[in-house]
Amino acid sequence: MAIPIVCVDAFTSEPFAGNPAAVCVLPEPRDPVWMQRVAREMNLAETAFLDRTADGFNLRWFTPTVEVDLCGHATLACAHVLWETGQAAATEPIRFRTRSGILTAVRRDDGWIELDFPVTPERHVETPSELIEALGVLSPRYVGQSRFDYLVELESEEAVRQVRPDFRRLQTISARGVIVTSRSSMPGCDFVSRFFAPASGIDEDPVTGSAHSCLAHFWSSRLHKDQFIARQLSERGGFLKVQLDGDRVRLSGQAVTTVRGELLA
Predict the structure, then answer these.
(1) What is the pTM of this model?
(2) Potential cystine with 63: which of 176, 201, 213, 246 (Cβ 3.0-4.6 Å)?
């Protein structure tokens, strides 16, 4: 039986920007080995698999090489597909049961989808020399680590843009990925970031919603505010609205459908 699959560009209002994800709504749960093979075939940053439950959907995310515990852009893409196709009521939140607990697509308002995610705070750590050497940065302002990633603060937006990692060396770092961030020099934008995850099969992720669950907490203590406009400085690029709300973070972004097809295998 053919299974519909949809490709969506997330955290952007324009096609071929933001972060692409494939969304597959399954008629019933499937074997994770099969899901991993589909994700490898799609070869996108994430492929998301949904199956319906009594009160929402089970949701799992796969890069081309591994299953991950938390993903923002593919969750945004899932909400976009479910609301766009009428598989979820347009006026009601969507609950996703995931490896990181219950996540919610709260609402869709004028093209912006708001997600409710857990905060993943970082803590200061001694700077690992192998991390800094792999990133090729000389004097980071700060280095921290969350349950998923390292976070490295640099002195300027230009310094973030100029980072050229050695991905083979970065792949050996014991973490899901590495967030590099600084205050923004762009009017109307609070902070910028980039995200590298070669150990998860993605050298540089275009726009990483889950990283902002850490960045919201980090920048709240430095900018003394809890609402932000953030930009990820990948080649494709993308914008997010971010709001810290206690131990939760609200991530808002736009999304565009680019491809509809069917899985035949």
Answers:
(1) 0.95
(2) 201
pLDDT at 138 over 90: no
Q: Is residue 117 part of a domain?
A: no
Catalytic annotation present for 28: no
Hey, what are 86's tokens?
């009428």
Identify whether residues 127 and 71 lie together within a single domain. Answer: no
Q: What letter does residue 198 receive in the DSSP assignment?
A: G
Query: Domain total for the chain?
Result: 2
Which band of pLDDT confidence, cut at 50, 70 and 90, is reported for residue 11? very high
Task: Answer yes or no: do 174 and 77 share one domain.
Answer: no
Q: What distances in angstroms separate CA 151 from CA 45, 120, 125, 146, 187, one per listed residue?
A: 20, 11, 10, 8, 24
CA separation for the pair 99, 246 (Å, rounded): 21
pLDDT at 1: 78
Q: How many CB atoms lie within 10 A of CB 156?
A: 14
Domain contains 115: no
Structural domain boundaries, residue 209: 123-246
CATH of the domain at 130: 3.10.310.10
Annotated active-site residue in 14, 28, 46, 158: 46
CB count, 10 Å around CB of 165?
20
Same domain membership, residue 224 and residue 167: yes
* 130 and 171 belong to one structural domain: yes
With CA atoms as reference, report the closest residue to 210 among 224, 220, 195.
195
